[in-house]
Each structure stands twice: as C-alpha cells, then as structure tokens.
Amino acid sequence: MPLVVMCGFPASGKTRRAVQLAEYLKTKTSGTIHIVEDHPEGTNRNEIYTDSHKERESRGNLKSHVQRLLTKDNVVILDSMNYIKGFRYELYCVTKSCRTPHCVIYCITEEAASKSWNLSRDEHLRYSGELMTELIQRFECPSPNSRWDKPLFTVLQDEPLNLEDIGHALFEQKAAPPNQSTQSQPLASTNFLYQLDKSTQDVVNAILTAQKTSIPGDQIKLPDAREPLVFMRPVNLAEMQRHRRQFITYTKSHPVTDTSKIANLFIQYLNKTLNS
Q: Has the keyword Nucleotide-binding been applied to this entry (predicted)?
C-alpha cells in the first residue's frame, strides 16, 4: 500500500496535516493507516539534529520503520521534515522495490511563521532558535521535476489539503515500475557462491602464473574455459582481484544455472575489460 512523505520546515504543520490525511484515508481503505513520527517519545530533537551521526542514525531508523510497515494492507505516512532530497530518493526507491505508489506533501510556511509556531510548543518539543535557523537553511525543497518528488502536493499554511487528489494518486495510479537497482536480487545457492569464488580464483592464479612466460598477443589457455585469454599486457594481483570482485558482484545478481560456465564467462569478461 502507498507511502506518503510529508515535507517542510520544522514546525510547519506537517503533523496536523498528517492526522487530517489519516482520517480521510480511513474512509478510503480498510487497511491500517500508520503515521511514522521522526521523534519517538523520549528522544531529544535538538541533540539529534546537532550531531550528524545521530541524525544519520535517525534517518536510517525511519527508513527501516517505513520498510517494515509497507505491506499490501497498510498506508504509511512519514511525518518528518524529510528535508534532504537524497533521503527522499531513498524512500522513493523503497516504494519502487515494494511496487507501491507514493506521493510527497510539501507544507509551505514562511520562515517567521515556523519560528513563531516553534516557540509556542511545549519545551520538550521545541527546537532551539539557532537550530531552527540552521534547519531552514539546510532545507532542500521538493521539485515537481524530480521523479522521487512526484506526485507533489503543495499546501500553504492557511489552505486545506487537496484530499481527493491525494487519494486518487495513492489508490488509483500505478506504482513506478521497479528497475535493476531497486529489485530484489535473485538468491543464489550456497554451492553456486562457492563455485563462483573458486572458479574465478583459479582463473586469476592461472593468469598470474602463465603471464610470466607469455608475450603480448599470446592466447593463454585456462582451466575449465573453452575460450583463451588474449594476453596483451601484464597485470598485477591487485588489478586482477579488482576485476574479479566486479565480476562476482555482477554474477551474484545474474546467476547461471550451469556452474561449469563460470570460468568461461569470467574469461569473456576479462578479454573485454583488459583489452578495451
């Protein structure tokens, strides 16, 4: 089910809008509506946003929480500033991998209004004056031209939410299709991974040994491979291991059913890579 990403300055009315939207969505679905808050009870928001490590950890926790809740029966509303476009992109990738729609709601307020609302909060919910200014300066506005910010709904501080259009985007539009970077990779058997590691290491060892007596232009015959390696220049262990790691990373996501082909595929890869 869909993900709604709230976005805006601190103290810009995001929580109020999130609650309004949750009440509306309850009339549109029998699923559970979850509002994920960025500051669980007991956390100190001033400590989090003045320490880059704590802030990064907090974002990681938010992302993990969202991923756990995104199921076919749930609607998740992330009530946070979400002021970093890179983090909004990560959330977009999560929705693509889950094959679920998403939207961004941008609560627009003037800086002075947000600061005033912040001062009216209870002390434990209040940002320090200096931190408020810093967070507003850090804010990266969502853009309707960025795929991770679409569909984008903007709402001014005195305007009502366009609930019908948001509901349409969440329940009637198709999710963005997953791509290679967001799809779950095929699971390979333990035996396949063992053979992949062993076969590629055997090839590397054979090349390092054979090149000692080879000259550029020679064709080196290697174990378990039908094709020879075209030897054009000497290569050291570090370079070979780098190419081996790249090949292994690719092959893990595109496993072959016949492990006897691994060595030959590695030779094809090396002929293309080393001689390009």
A: yes
User: Is 138 in a helix, a strand, or coil?
Assistant: helix
Domain residues of the chain, as ranges?
Answer: 3-171, 190-274
Residue 10: pLDDT over 60: yes
Which CATH homologous superfamily contains domain 3-171?
Answer: P-loop containing nucleotide triphosphate hydrolases (3.40.50.300)
Strands 219-220 and 229-230, bridge-based pairing: antiparallel
Helices (DSSP H) in 50-162: which residue ranges?
Answer: 52-69, 85-98, 111-119, 129-138
CA-to-CA distance for 72 and 75, rounded, in angstroms?
8
| pTM for the predicted model, two decimal places | 0.64
Confidence of residue 276 (pLDDT cuts 50, 70, 90): low
Omega into 151 within 30° of 0, i.e. cis? Answer: yes
Distances, alpha carbon 217 to alpha carbons 14, 175, 202, 234, in Å: 67, 52, 22, 11
**CA gap 89, 109 in Å, rounded:** 23
CA max distance for the chain: 80
DSSP string over 34-48: EEEESS-TT--HHHH
